[in-house]
Specification:
Blueprint lengths: L14 H37 L10 H4 L6 H17 L2 H14 L3 H19 L7 E6 L6 E9 L2 H6 L6 E7 L7 E7 L4 E2 L4 H9 L17
Antiparallel strand pairs: 1-2, 1-5, 2-3, 3-4
Helix pairs in contact: 1-3
Length: about 220
């Protein structure tokens, strides 16, 4: 006979609770895959819509196949870009580029737009071997508040000369959450920068997840093994 002091027997979750748990698990599994496929599909379609109208009608693949093949524009764009890059490396290509840039340099508005886009392209694509060196901790926006940053390089030139610091000055990129591609470029004395052992990828995950994903999944309070 049960008494008031007997523990209540463990209840199995109901059908609705089990269905809800299975649904949430399915969402966690499907959502990343679906979003990745959707993003790639959308980018390929955007490139196709920009490239295929420039291809003469007689060379359109759908004229021979009868259906619109997605991704043909991407292939054409890659082949065209490789061909232009190969030509640009030669003497003739460099001469043509120099001549074209000379013409653009005489156009007031176009000159400013072209130089800006060229500088961004060279920074992003031509210097891909340069990347962030280390993840770090800095006190920002004031002392006592800590932020994750990425050490990009050692400051030099006029920035290093005019800064009122007696030691080395580091360029620190402080990303925003949840979009780490935007942020702030700050210059900190090297002694005020604490370098972290975690990798750049782990630090980026920490920023993107708003502090929910730590390098050590077992115990966020302990350093990774």
């Amino acid at each position: 006979m049960n008494t008031p002091f007997d523990e209540e027997p463990h209840r199995r979750p109901g059908l609705l609770s089990r269905l809800r748990a299975s649904f949430l698990t399915g969402v966690v599994v499907i959502a990343p895959v679906w979003l990745t496929v959707w993003l790639i599909w959308s980018v390929v379609g955007w490139i196709d819509s920009a490239v295929l109208p420039l291809v003469p009608q007689q060379f359109q693949p759908q004229q021979y196949v009868g259906i619109n093949l997605r991704g043909v524009g991407v292939v054409i764009f890659l082949i065209f870009t490789i061909l232009v890059g190969w030509i640009a490396k030669g003497i003739l290509g460099r001469s043509l580029i120099h001549f074209a840039e000379g013409l653009v340099g005489r156009m007031p508005v176009v000159r400013s737009v072209y130089s800006g886009i060229k500088q961004i392209s060279e920074t992003v694509f031509a210097q891909t071997e340069r990347s962030f060196e280390k993840a770090c901790l800095i006190q920002y926006p004031r002392r006592g508040i800590w932020a994750i940053g990425f050490v990009s390089t050692t400051a030099r030139g006029e920035v290093s000369e005019r800064a009122e610091t007696g030691g080395e000055l580091l360029s620190i990129f402080v990303p925003t959450t949840p979009n780490p591609t935007s942020g702030f470029l700050l210059f900190f004395p090297a002694e005020d920068v604490i370098l972290l052992d975690m990798s750049i990828e782990d630090a980026a995950k920490l920023v993107i997840s708003a502090g929910l994903v730590y390098p050590n999944d077992k115990d966020p309070t302990q350093p990774p093994e």
